[in-house]
Design a protein that fits this description.
Radius of gyration: 15 Å
Structural class: alpha+beta
Distance between the termini: 11 Å
CATH topology: 60s Ribosomal Protein L30, Chain: A
Strand order of the largest sheet: 4-1-7-5-6
CATH superfamily: 2-C-methyl-D-erythritol 2,4-cyclodiphosphate synthase
CATH class: Alpha Beta
Order of helices and strands: EEEEHHHEHEHE
Amino acid sequence: MDLRIGHGYDLHRLEPLAPAGAGKPLIIGGVRLDSTRGPIAHSDGDAVYHAITDAILGALAMPDIGQLFPDTDPRHESQDSEVFLREAIRRARLTGYTIANIDATVILEQPKIGPRKDEMRATIASVVGIDVANVNVKGKTHEKVDAVGEGRAIEVHAVVLIRHL
C-alpha cells in the first residue's frame, strides 16, 4: 500500500505544578508553555508528541506507545517525549515509509495555544523531518464541559498520513 493513515490520541490529567502539586511543566508539541498546571505523566507528558507517535505507529500497524514505552519502565521516568516520536519515525523509515502530513488537535481550556501554534508546528516539523507546511496544530476547548473543560485535563487527537517511498 502506498499511503496509510494513522490516528493517535492522548489524555493527561492536569494538576498544579510542584511544590503545590504533582504536575510537570506543560509541554505541548515540544514547546514549554507558561502554566500553573501541568500533566501527570510517567514521561514529560507531551500529549501532542504522544498522539503523533501513536498515529505513526498505528499507520504502520505496529505496537502502540504504551507497549513500546510502558509507564512501568523506570527508564522512561520524565523521558523527553521526543525520544518516543523519533523511534516511531525510525520504524517508519525502516519499513520504507515517510511522513507526508500531520494534523493535531489540542483540546485544552488554558493556556490558549494560539500564540504558540506556529512554534509548535515548526518544532514538530523539525523533529519529523518534513516541511512545516505539512504540519498543522489546532487549539480547541471543551466549553467548560467535563474534566478537559474544567481545566483538569488535556486531550489531543492526531492524524498522520504516511507514504511508501
